[in-house]
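Worked example 3. Consider a protein that binds farnesyl diphosphate.
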Amino acid sequence: MKILRKKTTTVEKNNLPKHIAIIMDGNGRWAKKRGNIRLLGHKKGVDTVNEIVTAAAEIGIEYLTLYAFSTENWNRPKDEVFGLMDLLVTALENNLKKIQQNNVVLRTIGDINSLPPRTREKLQDAVEHTKQNTGLNLILALSYSARWEIEEMVKRIAQECVEGKISVENIDKTIINSHLCTKNIPDPELLIRTSGEYRISNFLLWQIAYTELYFTETLWPDFTKEEFITAIADYQSRERRFGKTGEQVQ
Ligand code: FPP
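Given these inputs, the predicted complex is written out as structure tokens:
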């Protein structure tokens, strides 16, 4: 399926999505096309992360969630897994100053305790050092999958029911939201997936109930600020009905 879109260079400032989520896909194919190892694609992918984080902060996006490592990614070859974990450490070391200059608040979602100690410590350190910032919330999904998150949420709510803190009849979407990793984070209005794959791959399944989806053929290392702006403009051209009729929302 090839989607043709008009390229746009501007966005309307009064209709910005508060929260954009991105499935950064295609690093491996980008490297393979050039006869390189997959890790080189991930390295180039970090440059794209830098470009898009800077763009999001400039545009005035409040939350940007990046799917950086899924629960299922642990099944990849060990050298790729540990290469990615090291890359994360290097990316944090090289960019912490810029993250601070851009007033970015770094946060994580996922099973952070399962990460190698060095990666986990670097992340916790960066989270601690940026928590006073007031700009873009950059949320890295690491060792994350939506089904894992939902399992954890169900276990915690069940435990609180057993302890008498919650009654079963009071369980509603507010209680569910407050037991997810994304507690206090608004649902994304826009989800972007690169690399021509038309799947959600276990990402934010609860939170994307009404999210607008933007799929592009571009591989993540080739994704640019210009295409990010095109995706936002595409979102702004859509009518969001939330189950109502077109007339009701006009
Ligand atoms: C998917 O491409 C990408 C990943 C599993 C890792 C994404 C990680 C980065 C962009 C770098 C680290 C990120 C941060 C936040 C510093 P793939 O490997 O599945 O590509 P393929 O489908 O072409 O094989």
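Take a moment to read the result before moving on. The pocket of farnesyl diphosphate is lined by residues 24-29, 38, 42, 45-46, 49, 66, 68, 73, 87-88, 91, 140, 195, 220 (CB under 6 Å). Strands lie at 19-23, 63-70, 105-109, 137-144, 190-193, 212-215.
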